[in-house]
Amino acid sequence: MFENLQDRLGSILNGLTGRGALSEADVSAALREVRRALLEADVALDVVRSFTDRVREKAVGAGILKSIKPGQMVVKIVHDELIEMLGGEGVGIDLNAPAPVVVMMVGLQGSGKTTTSAKIAHRLMSRDRKKVLMASLDTRRPAAQEQLRQLGVQANIDTLPIIAGQSPTDIAARAVQAAKLGGHDVVILDTAGRTHIDEPLMVEMADIKKRSNPHEILLVADSLTGQDAVNLARNFDDRVGITGLVLTRMDGDGRGGAALSMRAVTGKPIKLIGVGEKMGELEEFHPRRIADRILGMGDIVSLVEKAAENIDAEKAAAMAAKMAKGKFDLNDLADQLSQMQKMGGMGGIMGMMPGMAGMKDKMAAAGLNDKLFGRQLAIISSMTKAERANPDLLKHSRKKRIASGSGTDASDINKLLKMHRQMADMMKMMGGKGKGGMMKQLMGGLAGKMGLGGGGMGGMPDLSNMDPKQLEALQKQAEAAGLGRPGGMPGLGGGGLPGLGGAKLPGLGGGFPGLPGLPKKK
Known about the structure:
Elements: H1 3-17, H2 24-40, H3 45-59, H4 62-65, H5 70-86, E1 101-106, H6 113-128, E2 132-136, H7 144-155, E3 158-159, H8 168-182, E4 186-190, H9 199-212, E5 216-222, H10 227-239, E6 244-248, H11 257-266, E7 270-274, E8 282-284, H12 287-294, H13 300-310, H14 313-324, H15 330-342, H16 345-352, H17 359-365, H18 370-381, H19 385-389, H20 396-406, H21 410-430, H22 438-449, H23 468-480
Parallel strand pairs: 1-4, 1-5, 2-3, 2-4, 5-6, 6-7
Antiparallel strand pairs: 7-8
Helix pairs in contact: 1-2, 1-5, 2-3, 3-5, 5-12, 6-7, 8-9, 10-11, 15-18, 18-20
Subcellular location: Cell inner membrane; Cytoplasm
Membrane topology: Peripheral membrane protein
Organism: Rhizobium lusitanum
């Protein structure tokens, strides 16, 4: 979503950091471009004005302009103010209240309230081990209550039985009572939406609030609606009193202005963001991490968390042991490609790697995209067990059969086999024993560069035992070592992008040495 803004701000700020000295005129010219970039991204005008005024006030002081690296100081000021505009510290859903904690979902029709309600319930169950009850209060939209029930069945979440003819306020009161009797920790009320804000909607919301006494009132807003979402948040807050925001479709191609404006305009924290259609594609909103992504600094912490959620630690350990012996077959390659897809695909991973945001376009131009991985998985799936374990069996007749089964041609199969051979050769080299092993050298070298010692494999720290503050500190250490600057990532073309459990990044000639110490899936 922030790609256009990222490109614009990146080019503006790179122009500043490339200079040895800055004048006030240089800073003013850069801030004019920053202002234009934010307005083009659909950020609210008053938010842009206050942002640029604060940056200018700090950036034109004598201490900045005469410092050793004034350009980098200005970038830091922009970064800090961007974090402040987004809310400073991340705020999650507050469950510190007597059970059952009532969470009321509000918003316009089509913003994704029902799906988001199920995603939040799934998150609370799987991550926080809470017993959740969902209830649909939407008696006007056809099959709205049935939709929530079906989502509950799919995700194994309790839903309030539907009784025809009940009013939304009666359903809310019944849901709270049922949650008390059923021993539920949280009850989520999915209220009705409208195509626009009207008086009956607001009166109904107020009545539901009185009957259910919600601890959290979350406004679900479509991030693609731009400034309308900001006005929507203001109106709902005035009439109902929202406690936080949930932005949906953050994986879309919108300009990101709503996300940057809503916190500043309403003063209410953005608590969660929807990054996809699947049940698990809901993330906490961390202002610092979003600011890092916008300014092209990467987001190692989120990448580590995503890896911990999606990579099976036992499977990764077994694969690492196999690779230490120099073995790497097509089953292993398929596992690596599947893990990459779970973590958001090539684009999602690259967007979170420090200094790698600009690589996405180059890789797409070279044909290295997630569709390519889908074709490669289809090819491997069309092989027999023996062929996957021993690719040398693949002669012309077998390739013809596989191409027919996977909807590809012989050239695609040959490219896959060539990539596998290169990766298998790399695994043999990296699996070398003793002090000279490439894997040890690579991991030890990266750890040394970042000033880290002990912990996981090859001197890397055990990431699974770190709390979020320690992970944030790790990110800062990585940036200080040069990993947060364009071109500062060691090892592309022969090094390593940490984090995919043992294989190299296909097509880049480097290595994915694997995240050590990942927690086991529960």
